[in-house]
Amino acid sequence: MASPKTLTIWEAQFGDFSNGAQIMLDQYISAAEDKWKTQNGLVMLLPHGYEFQGSEHSSARMERYLQLCSNYNMIIADCTTPANFFHLLRRQMKWNFRKPLIVFTPKSLLRHELVVSTKEELCKGKFQEVIDDVKVDKKKVKSVVFCTGKFYYDMIDKRNELERADVALVRIEQLFPLPEAKLKEIIASYPNAKDYVWAQEEPKNMGAWGYMLMNFDWIKLRLASRFALSAPAAGSSTRSKARHQKVLEAVFNTPK
């Protein structure tokens, strides 16, 4: 069976012009198996993460890919550790079937001091669809915050600054298919939690919020995000950082 092909960003956005025609990758990736019974193992690594460098550097348009998801037609992931990223790609190769894999890859995590994995995690671990918070006492937790990608590390810094032991940060590493059984198991492990939050650095009308509202509907989620905007991020680094701080403050603004 053919190995998955990794697309360049140019190919992913504009298609292959070598035959004089633009390939509509959104239709091919999302619907090829349903339309033409053709499996493919395409892997797309798309830069995504608010690095305060302007709108076009901020978003791979996660919301658009999630809108195309149904019937197990592709895998959508946003990993936060080297080991999980490695095991995600390894799983893609080892499966005896093929599904397109879309991975959102924040640039700043390449050099982040906390984004490390041990040899044990790389050699003996496996891909984790959800990563629970192992740094909190679950009996003390009042708020369970669900997130994905690099925003997790921003919230870790803020939690340490505020010395909040009552907030758990749970990372959803695979957005589609959404690991519902694992999420329900994690929620049940926090006996005193009353506040459940979806936190994202994207505006309200972008990112995974709409997808979560449609698919994560067994509990009531409180949203912590930027307000709805027409552009993914501000053209001003100063303004973007200010908005980012407001989102972080909203995450830890637990209702009494």
Task: Describe this entry's structure for a reader.
By secondary structure, this protein is an alpha/beta fold. The chain has a single domain, classed as Multifunctional 2-oxoglutarate metabolism enzyme, C-terminal domain (Rossmann fold, 3-Layer(aba) Sandwich). The chain has nine helices and ten strands. The protein has helices spanning 9-14, 25-36, 62-67, 82-94, 119-124, 151-162, 180-188, 209-215, 237-251, and strands spanning 6-7, 43-46, 75-77, 101-104, 130-131, 143-147, 167-172, 174-176, 195-203, 222-226. It has a five-stranded mixed sheet. A five-stranded mixed sheet has the order 5-7-6-9-10, sandwiched between helices. Helix 8 (209-215) links the parallel strand 9 and strand 10 (222-226). The radius of gyration is 19 Å and the shape is globular. The termini are far apart. Residues 14-23 have low confidence and may be disordered.
